[in-house]
Specification:
This protein is α+β, with helices and mostly antiparallel strands and 269 residues long. The protein has three helices and 15 strands. It has two domains: 79 residues, no CATH class; 174 residues, Nucleotidyltransferase, domain 5, CATH 3.30.420. Strands 1, 2, 6, 7, 8, 9, 10, 11, 12, 13, 14 and 15 form a twelve-stranded mixed sheet that branches. A three-stranded antiparallel sheet has the order 3-4-5, with no helix packed on it.
């Protein structure tokens, strides 16, 4: 079941998911409580999940619009501006993985870029602050590299003392869209035996369009960070980067890279 708003080339819609069939008699809309569904017995119906999607019409004229962002939430408000999500979480962890082949035997190197973002509470107007915080390197991963990067990022975040505990965190990704609802509901593991942590939600953002909004822009930036570290590792190595010794992650060994040299290349380009 869907409700939405249209503003020119941008649209936003709520999609409701239920664990069992329901009959809706009425839909109530209010500025105070958003949207509520009323059943045949006059009682409010609570969806099991609510999916908020924002889309952009394609300039090519294609009938199918491009998906910009998706968040799974209990909210009942429709807003075409994806940036309003920054008021709902304390921290945002953008995670993107790119995989390349290397060497004469065609080995696989996957590099996961990490970007931390948050809404600055001490500025008016409020601004989104962000910074790349490093990358993970996986050699010949035996499980899906994107999801492995997500799980390793969550594990590293929880182990780090750089970030306060008990804050709400949105994990922002740009892959496996069809699985995100069940991963967010803790029905499907990110990788075997590793589920989304309490206090975390998973959010989709496109890395290749809609960059006038902060969420897709930062997803694109994270994609650039991943490729940036790929180039640094393979071309200039430890002159510009340092890494921890290979260690065991949630599924296999990995190296954690950070920049130490004077890098002139800007990954936001």
């Amino acid at each position: 079941m869907r409700h939405g708003v249209n503003a020119g080339k941008y649209t936003a819609a709520l999609a409701y998911e239920f664990d069992e069939p329901v009959n809706v008699r009425n839909v109530l809309m209010s500025r105070d409580f958003g949207i509520r569904l009323v059943g045949l017995d006059g009682r409010f119906i609570q969806p099991s999940r609510t999916r908020l999607e924002t889309k952009r019409a394609r300039e090519s004229g294609s009938a199918k619009p491009k998906l910009l962002t998706t968040s799974f939430t209990d909210t009942a408000r429709v807003d075409k501006d994806p940036d309003h999500i920054f008021s709902r979480y304390d921290d945002f962890l953008f995670v993107d993985t790119n995989t390349r082949k290397f060497g004469p035997t065609g080995r696989s190197r996957s590099v996961t870029g990490l970007v931390h973002a948050y809404l600055s509470p001490l500025q008016f107007p409020q601004m989104v602050r962000f910074k790349e915080i490093g990358a993970f390197e996986f050699l010949d991963p035996q499980v899906d590299a994107e999801r492995l990067g997500w799980a390793t990022a969550i594990d590293a975040w929880k182990r780090s003392n750089q970030f306060p505990k008990g804050r709400s965190v949105a994990l922002v990704v740009d892959a496996h869209y069809s699985l995100l609802g069940s991963i967010g509901a803790r029905e499907t593991p990110i990788v075997d035996g590793c589920y989304l942590s309490p206090g975390w939600d998973i959010v989709y953002a496109s890395a290749d369009t809609g960059r006038q909004f902060s969420l897709p822009y930062l997803m694109h930036y994270c994609d650039r960070v991943s490729n940036w570290f790929h180039d640094l590792i393979t071309q200039r190595g430890e002159e510009y980067c340092s890494h921890t010794e290979p260690k065991r992650g949630v599924h296999l060994g990995f190296r954690n890279w950070t920049v130490t040299g004077n890098i002139s290349a800007d990954p936001s380009n």
